[in-house]
Amino acid sequence: MQRDLRLDNVGRRYGLRGPWVLRAVNLAIAPGTLTRVEGANGTGKSTLLRLLAGIDAPTEGRITGRPRTAYVPERFPSALPFTAVGYLTHLGTVHGLSRASATRAAHACLERFGAAAYARTPMAQLSKGSSQKVAVAQALLAEPEFLVLDEAWTGLDEDARAELERAVAERTAVGASVVFVDHDPSRLAGVPDVICTVRDGGVNRRTEHPTSPAAGPRTVVVAQGPRGGALPAETAGLPLTTLEETTAGTYRITVPASHSDVLLRALLMSRPPWHVVAVGSEETP
Ligand SMILES: Nc1ncnc2c1ncn2[C@@H]1O[C@H](COP(=O)(O)OP(=O)(O)OP(=O)(O)O)[C@@H](O)[C@H]1O
């Protein structure tokens, strides 16, 4: 994502005389940020996400700067006349991949979320959880610059939930933005850069400070790199909780557990690679 996605004076109501669900919303989503949207039931969270994703148009106001976007809706229309892999392959070709690459990407995505066994099952026959995995896979397939997740974790098993958290971390680490709603307050706790609260038709935006002690599980990585040097550039988008040079060239780095894979990959893939000495988990207060 190269620039902010902007909502200027956006309003949305359903029907000509329906009540305004959102009104006078001004909001900017910056590249590389993770935003959590919260609010009571029926306040307009899904409405806001559909507007952000471009699935729905504002009744008034303007939305500009939307990059290549993917969306996981609250309710995924699973009764489609495709097998899971057929559907994802089709979408891959729509996104410009060759058929062979799209098929490979489709299988890889299903495998990643533990749904490889259902690749050839007609979508209408998938269980709710399996079809949710396809919903998530379709969004991640094209490596979007902007990812919008409306209760995307609901119905996923534990492994798939963790995998989706990792996928979110990967997206933001490469400069994409992610906006999500989730009923579980501990979802990615301490990680979001921004919290948006929808209330009384408005959106209140507040910036979080990932450097303050974050809630949720954290991973401690001890790694050796250049003395007094900086972390590899690939770690720039990560919400590091602490970074300490314990002895010359040895660093103790703490990240939210959901981001540990991205941190480790960045360290090991940097040129020259860092040496990872230890990885452990840290209890949080
Ligand atoms: N397609 C629609 N047609 C008419 N009214 C709608 C439509 N979609 C949403 N609404 C109304 O807009 C309001 C906000 O709904 P929305 O689903 O955006 O809220 P939400 O905060 O996501 O709710 P929840 O937490 O229950 O998922 C509700 O009053 C809802 O009935």
UniProtKB/TrEMBL annotation:
Superkingdom of this protein's organism: Bacteria
Record key words, sorted: ATP-binding, Nucleotide-binding, Transport
Domain ABC transporter span(s) in chain numbering: 5-225
A single GO molecular function term of this UniProt record: ATP binding
Classification via PROSITE patterns: ABC_TRANSPORTER_2
Residue intervals passing through the bilayer: none
SMART domains: AAA (SM00382)
PANTHER family noted in UniProt: ALIPHATIC SULFONATES IMPORT ATP-BINDING PROTEIN SSUB 2 (PTHR42788:SF19), TAURINE IMPORT ATP-BINDING PROTEIN-RELATED (PTHR42788)
Protein known as: ATP-binding cassette domain-containing protein
Species annotation: Streptomyces cupreus
